[in-house]
Amino acid sequence: MPNQLNSVVLAGCGGMAGAYAKVLRQIEQPFVVLGRSQTGAEKFAAEWGADVGHGPHEEQLAGLETVPAVAIVAVSAASLSEVTKALIKFGCRKILIEKPAAMNPAAVAELARFAEAHGAEAYVAYNRRFYSSVSQAERLIAEDGGALSLKFDFTEAARRIETIGKSAIELEGWFYGNSTHVLDLAFFLAGEPRELQAQSCGALEWHPAGAIFSGHGVTKHDAVFSYHANWLAPGRWGVEIMTRHRRLVLQPMEQLFCQNHNAFSLEQISLDDELDRVYKPGVYRQTKAFLTAEPDKRLLPLAKHASLFAIYATIRDGGVYSTSQGTTTE
Fold it and tell me: How far, in whole angstroms, is CA 195 from its chain's centroid?
């Protein structure tokens, strides 16, 4: 491969990697791709006109004349931690990792420690933070003096998920790998929990940890919250934020609806969302924010992500969480 100085490493050849490649092409950011299989690498190279390697990632990195200092990791969920460590070992010092970064709380914490020990600046990619709908919701929440309460639903389409050919390890970790999109967004808008009481019951063959989840609590900004998700029944993701003047509804999350006082109807709010229609929603702004030197509060540091897994584990498994006492299980 040629000298990749001033390039970005893009690890992965799947659909998510393609979403990043589309943005990198548009902003004229050079990049080199690390694939896994030869077939996937050749297909990706043909589609995006990029340098694409294949085989073990460490061998590919060793073959680069210069390893870029910046990387985006968009491999399968089960491989995220392994590939991120390889990039760090070979000198990458600023890395954007697709969620959930690793498949369980212990592995996420270990990866965060590894990155810190090597001086790597690592972030976890929750692209919904960058939706036009979410940016507008943030503005309206701030305008109204903050969130008073919120509720959210992270019901997963279990029957569809069962047919998409994911590995057993990814299915078993589906809550951490997918449902946390909703949890992250809810707490991003209203603050992370200070107190939480959670219940979890039921199971799916591929997700034995739970299938029905409910709970309530209060955030560090004193917003009361509740949630309910039932993977055994039909449903869809959604977040609702209540302020003194509005009820803001993100369902679907790419759109924003508002209910005002003295009205029962929800009115759709017009958005400047062209970037979310041309590119995978949120990914253009997320990529630009990551590649820019200026800090962006929407980027989630890996260490912070690791600390939130105590909350996520309580929601998945049931129990009580308190910032003053830590997590306890019932």
Answer: 23
